[in-house]
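Deviations from the work plan: none for this task. Representative record:
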Amino acid sequence: MKIAVQSEDFDLNFELTRMRESRKDIGALVSFVGLVRDLNDGDTVSQLTLEHYPGMTEKALQTIVLDATSRWAVLDATVVHRVGSLQASEQIVLVAVASAHRDQAFKACEFIMDYLKTQAPFWKKELTASGERWLDDKDSDHDAQQRWQLP
Amino acid sequence: MKIKIFDFARLKETWKFSSEDLELPDAELSLLKLKGLLAKRSEVWQKMLLGSLKVRGAINHELVDDQALIVDGDEVAFFPPVTGG
């Protein structure tokens, strides 16, 4: 399991190769990469700045990955989240999950992203033509997280 | 008790501080009561803590609700709902 919060970019192929070569019982490797878009709420975004809570962020991500591991047959997982200033089309986040079969890996990957969005202490600030603005949390993200709750 | 307070994102920008050591007469205190105490500092504090912004709290790096108890040595953080990913 690898959890990293960093300002540097990451290399998807390097991370997937590392996971793939670490063991021979992996049958499915699912990954998600989140990117900076140049348009949000109808405005052109020239820069995105990500702030986080050092110490808590790593712990929250670890808890989320462990929760996923307890619910699905996850063999390995990688979460890399960038902080600092990013430009349009840059990579923000990588979640990669390895399991024996695709169903488990797809579900665990989605679960980790949905929880990361609503539980991990990151905050986005956009720079648009009219200045800087902090983003508000979205109901759709909370709904996406709620659907995983066990009865 | 002595505690340390941190704040992030919009709160940090508005309050213009990122951490503060605080000494309180209480042996323990709920997060809600601490919010109430801090809100008395000024209108700016009150607006952020008790206004329309949804403020989330963490004690020692764990997300908690308003009823959670703070004790000596705790690290308390206030921040807006998270927006990463």
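Chain B touches chain A at residues 6, 8-10, 54, 58, 61-63, 77, 79-85 (CB under 8 Å).
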